[in-house]
């Protein structure tokens, strides 16, 4: 068949296709309208709070004034990014932020998976529920309160820890002047707060595993450990990868509230506790300068974006099914 | 049935979202309502909004008067103390047209920056003469409008220029303990002598900290530097919470920094180290956030620090009542060498928002608050008989059972107080006149009130410098470095790397242009 002969045929099929597509799109829309309605708040949330303000990052490249607004203010190029480099802190801050987040991500996921698997093995329903609730509780405690609790436990003059040490005849320790102690304290506190939440996510994933697999494993005579090793863990892999990719995107964003409330303005600890957010907060909070803080936000986002793209690329190379996109 | 509810819920949600989105699009009406309903004027004030109902009662009464006189009503919008710097600037940044009058200041509330950025409405002479005639006449009579003009020659705010205040900080301490520590009449007259006082408190009052500190105590450094140099701080330039640039009395036209030059910073840091070793403050004071003033009142702290007004208006009365016989005393920074400045006249000021729908009416309200005795007393003192009384000798007193910690008005009108309408208070320190006379004898006018600094050129540097300061100063001020000399050398190098010299040169150029 020549091209000319084929042409009308192709046209006719083209004429039919949109009609069909329109109908099926409409049908698909109507058949899942409740689902779409349920998505609406989330879509609205992201449009209003994440996408709509996006052009605002232009402010990072301007010398902003109220009169001319974001897009009318004079363009200053990368001047607003200078202060991070000038303060000599960029490397230290990036290092601390990334290392803390890596510790949070790696240890957090390991702990969450371990606890989820353990919860799954518990047969006593009430015990399981109670354990779950107790683990989840710290997630709801305000970091302000966490900071106060930590200070009351750890402070030199009348902290509970030193009370115990002195009671036992030991020398009180100066926790708030010991930078080396804080990576451990902060990581532990973060894990204490977030493990319950992560556990629930993984536990839900375990609940979603097809029961047939467990039955088959039982028939094959798998021990509990083998069940975990060959059924549960491989089934958790996709959700682990997704959570990992999400977490990597925020690797330059620290848990500001936690750091600020635990360490505050204690300059003696900055070497090991200062992350981008806390440092920037200190540097610009009293400067009345929104452009510099926007610049830092942009730096964090671009860094996070690059990491997610890279990690996703690596995941896709290893197993395309697990990649986000 | 359930389906119906879900549908209704979804519809309501969608309506709510679109209403929220559209709310931003509605503009305020520009119509003036002369003769009609009273115009609502909102004034932005700093502070925690009181919850005891006194403020609302006062506003009801004040508004009756404002409606009668200018057909307007006043409401207050509070920027609360928690994270106030960020919140205040964000409020202005948002271009909120619900605020008409804005409390500002050139030394602590970014008046120049916000004026430059277009947050304030330029006030023409005619506008002020017509709508705030009494204010205009007084400020003009004192020749103070120049203090509020940008390069464009326009007036951007109204100064609180007719209210005497000395914001000199200093130590509040207990005369009874100082007497026991060996000071004649309990008077400490040298900064270093506090070592002896603190040591005595440490040795003799086991329950008390010699000086209970919460957070950054860098006041001890500035206090020492003020009393041991002739440095005068350029109040318009801050790097974070620190004011890095000074001139000297000997050379008022050269910008320098007591953090960068001279040996006094080292001497101050060494003294702080000595105090830290004594245990003057808690070991973890940087992380402590308790109310140390209450600790002073409770007899658990030997000292506190803040400015003259705080001593005269609060400390004396509270401490002497709560610790009878404590003989409250005040040692102000710069007392030894007379290095004291009067406050900048724009330490309080009032601006009209650039987004105000009723700027003229806002000025009329302000003119009354500032100059009409009855309105002035209402906004500043509250309702006579409930919030305050006038004693037989004409002083401002308080009714039976009044407790300032729970009953205070909290209107925080710090942008238009007037000496001639101010009343002495029964709670004022009895040696108020003596303290003022002492300050008056030595205090000089702040010389750089009209100096405009080009912040655009140095903002990134100031931000970087604030990063360095926040790393070193709190530790120097608390004596936490084993080797203060090495730490200071490091800090100076870091400040240089951050661009100190460029910033200094830029401010120097501004100063040169201003002085010529």
Automatic annotation (TrEMBL), chain B:
Gene3D superfamilies: Periplasmic binding protein-like II (3.40.190.10). The keyword Signal applies. InterPro entries: Bact_solute-bd_prot1, DUF3502. Pfam families: DUF3502. Residues 453-515 form the DUF3502 domain. SUPFAM superfamilies: Periplasmic binding protein-like II (SSF53850). Keywords: Signal. Residues 1-23 form the signal peptide. This is ABC transporter substrate-binding protein.
